[in-house]
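Design request, tokens follow.
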């Protein structure tokens, strides 16, 4: 299978599985516990049908929208995800360049593998930094100041990780970061010589934004759950979020809001956006899918804050459904991580091009010239 044979997210997923050592593929692919919520995130879209309007004469479509004060070329954003240079040696650099080419938001993770400063200098398109609140308050303050200095356009606080989810696939595969070439891993890595060569002989893998802290000890490998449980602050609360919003002073997003009550509190503390998200089904298994919760959250706060549907997006039709409910945009991680693993920057650009094409074609078939023309009249739930 070649990159040219990839026409949808599942195709990129299959190619990623062929190119990555199994522990790393399953880190991307897996969720918490029985993975019920992971599966539900995408399946939720299947229970809602689009109802098109015909004879609308739609020769061209305007896909642009405004999210967190920035006009973007399409209503699909690249969520912040960790450890990207594990999936392809280009990592965040490839993702950032692809996001800039497609004129959309790119998120950088606290536990990313390219620094705030590097990404800030690399692209001029909208950049969001995703912050985990650490026990080390000096680290938190330093990350915020670095984002200001590097010209980041928004800060996103992840609010659903005061304890790590039970990611059983990682337990079974022995996934740790950074990877260790233990006897049990050598065969798995040897089966993917292309990936292994890049990992061993290109620049050293590191968590670039927390370099030199307790969470980035080069002599100690952690699972993601162990990192969350040992490094992040379980006492994070609404006062924490409100102080952070004031310290940042700019566009501020809460990532991981799933209830109407929390959405209203986000408005009350001055957040300018929320990502309706369950962390890709990697935290609380049995929780609702973002699309399942979207309508009631939009009805409660959609006129006062930007609502972003984050998770489960695999097709352009998923984006159309979320926009019709009232989301300003959608975002996702796996949709581009599989493509990154499959082919680096070229893979991410191919995936985004396919998704953009699906959104544009779907808009034309729906008889709509812009996202503003979409509404719940275009939807029916089964």
């Amino acid at each position: 299978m070649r990159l040219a044979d990839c026409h949808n997210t599942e195709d990129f997923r299959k190619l990623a599985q062929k190119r990555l050592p199994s522990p790393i593929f399953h880190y991307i692919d897996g969720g918490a516990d029985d993975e019920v919520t992971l599966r539900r995130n995408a399946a939720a879209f299947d229970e809602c049908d689009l109802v098109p309007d015909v004879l609308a004469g739609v020769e061209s479509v305007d896909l642009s929208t405004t999210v967190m004060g920035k006009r973007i070329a399409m209503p699909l954003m690249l969520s912040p995800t960790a450890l990207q240079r594990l999936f392809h040696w280009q990592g965040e650099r490839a993702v950032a360049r692809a996001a800039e080419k497609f004129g959309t938001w790119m998120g950088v993770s606290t536990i990313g593998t390219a620094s705030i400063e590097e990404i800030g200098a690399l692209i001029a398109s909208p950049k969001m930094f995703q912050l985990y609140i650490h026990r080390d308050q000096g680290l938190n303050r330093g990350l915020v100041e670095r984002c200001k200095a590097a010209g980041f356009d928004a800060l996103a606080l992840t609010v659903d990780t005061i304890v790590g989810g039970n990611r059983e696939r990682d337990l079974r595969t022995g996934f740790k970061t950074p990877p260790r070439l233990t006897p049990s891993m050598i065969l798995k890595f040897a089966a993917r010589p292309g990936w292994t060569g890049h990992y061993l002989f290109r620049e050293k893998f590191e968590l670039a934004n927390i370099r030199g802290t307790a969470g980035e000890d080069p002599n100690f490998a952690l699972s993601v759950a162990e990192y969350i449980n040992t490094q992040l602050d379980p006492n994070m609360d609404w006062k924490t979020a409100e102080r952070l919003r004031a310290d940042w002073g700019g566009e501020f997003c809460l990532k991981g809001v799933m209830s109407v009550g929390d959405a209203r509190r986000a408005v009350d503390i001055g957040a300018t956006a929320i990502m309706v998200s369950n962390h890709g089904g990697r935290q609380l298994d049995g929780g609702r899918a973002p699309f399942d919760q979207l309508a009631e959250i939009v009805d409660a706060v959609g006129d006062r804050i930007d609502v972003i549907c984050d998770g489960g997006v695999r097709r352009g039709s998923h984006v159309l459904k979320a926009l019709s409910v009232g989301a300003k945009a959608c975002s996702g991680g796996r949709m581009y991580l599989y493509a990154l693993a499959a082919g680096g920057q070229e893979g991410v650009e191919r995936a985004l091009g396919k998704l953009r094409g699906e959104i544009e074609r779907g808009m034309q078939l729906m008889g709509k010239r812009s996202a503003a023309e979409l509404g719940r009249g275009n939807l029916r739930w089964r």
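Comment from the thread starter after seeing the answer: thanks! Residues 334-366 form the longest helix (33 residues).
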